[in-house]
Amino acid sequence: MNYAIIKKLPPADEIIQQIPLSLAGYEKILQDQQAVKNILEGLDDRLLIVVGPCSAWPKEAVLTYAKKLLKLNEQLKHALKIVMRVYIQKPRTMKGWTGPINQPDPLAYPDIEAGVRYTRAMMIQVIEMGLPIADEALFTHNAKGFLELLSWVAIGARSAEDQEHRIFASAIDCAVGMKNPTHGSLTIGVNGVLAAQNPHVAVFDGYEVQTKGNSHAHLVLRGNNEGSNYAIEDLQAVKCHMDALQIKNPAVIIDASHDNCLIDGKKDHRLQPNIVMNILDSLAPHPALKKLVKGFMIESFIKSGHQKVDPNHPLALDMGGLSITDPCLSWTETEAFLLQLADRVSLHHET
Fold first, then answer.
1. Residue 134: in which H helix or E strand, if any?
2. What is the pLDDT of residues 238-255, one digit of tens each?
3. Which of 113, 154, 294, 314, CA to CA, is 20 to 30 A from 77?
4. Where do the structural domains in the chain lie, given as residue ranges?
C-alpha cells in the first residue's frame, strides 16, 4: 500500500469513555431521532429544519451559535423541528481542508486523534445544551464515537452513488438524507434512497452481516451543476420515481444552499430565505407535493459570508463565526427568517 504510518490511533471505545455523553443526552438523542422519523412518516406536521454552519469550526463560535439557536428553538419548536448542523467532515471537489475531525487547526498539520477529541467534545456540548445535531457521513470507517450522537445524517452528493455509503445508510438507526449527485440526476438520487431502504450483505468490523434497511432514508435536493432542482416539475419527477419504486415514507428535504442558490454560476447564500418561501408558495396548489416536502437545509453561522484560510496571514483569520468553507447567512438573518417561517407554518396549521 502506498502510505506511511504516522501513529496508531486509540480505540474509539477509549475516546468514548474519556469524553462521555450523559444518560440524559442519550435519551434526548433517541427522542429527537424519533421526532425526525415522525415528520418523515407524516405523523408530525412540523417542518424539519437542518440549520447551522457549513463546517463546525472553531468550537467556541459553534457553541456560541448553538446557545443562540437553542434560545430561538424554544420559541419555534411548536412549528419547526430544528436540528443543528455540526458538520465535522467536509468533502472537497478537488482538494482542501477536510474538516475539524482531520485538522482541528486549519493552519497546522492534520492531527486526527486531536480532531476526534476536539469534535466529539464539541458535539457533546451542543447535545447537552439540548439541541439535536446533524453531520454528513463522509468517512464511514471511523463513524463510531460520532454516529450515535446524531439525530439526522446526510449522505453527500459525491457519496450517494457509492455502494459503501448506500450500505452504511441501510445499516444506521436514524433517518438519513441521500443527496442527489452533483450532476443532478433525480433518478439516481431516488435510486440511492431505494438502495438505503433495502437490506444488504456486507462486512462490518470483521463480521459478515446483513443490514436491515433504513425505512427513513429520503431524498435531499441540493441543485446540480446547471442550477436549482426544486421546481414543481422536479418535485413531480421525484414523486413519479418514488411511486414507481414504492419508496417507504416518501419524503424530500430541500437544501436551499449549494447549487440551489446559484446566480450566474456563483453561490449567493443570501437567497436561502427567499428560496424557502418561494418553494412554499409554489407548493400551495399542489397538496401531494406539499406532503412530499418535509423540510429544508440552511447554511448559517454568526457572521454573513465566508473567508479564505491563508497560512501566510494567520492573524487575519476571523475566529468569531465567519465560515471558512461555504458562505453562510448571518445569525441576524437566520433568526429573522426562522421566525417568519414558523409564523407561516403556524398559520397553515390554524387554517
1. strand 133-136
2. 999 999 999 999 999 999
3. 154
4. 25-339
- Note the maximum CA span of the chain: 63
Phi, psi of 113 (to 5 degrees): -60, -45
Query: Which residues are bridge partners to 298 per DSSP?
Result: 51
Q: What are the residues facing 254 on neighbouring strands?
A: 221, 296
Place of cell 452528493: 157
Give the residue from 257, 253, 166 showing the smallest Cα distance to 213: 166
Alpha helices in the chain (DSSP H): 12-18, 23-41, 59-76, 112-129, 163-171, 186-197, 232-245, 272-283, 287-292, 331-350
9-64 tens-digit pLDDT:
999 999 999 999 999 999 999 999 999 999 999 999 999 999 999 999 999 999 99
Residue 41 burial (10 A CB sphere; 0-12, 13-18, 19+) = middle
CATH number for the domain running over 25-339: 3.20.20.70
- For residue 72, count other CB atoms closer than 10 A to its CB: 19
Residue type, 107: L
Residue type, 244: A
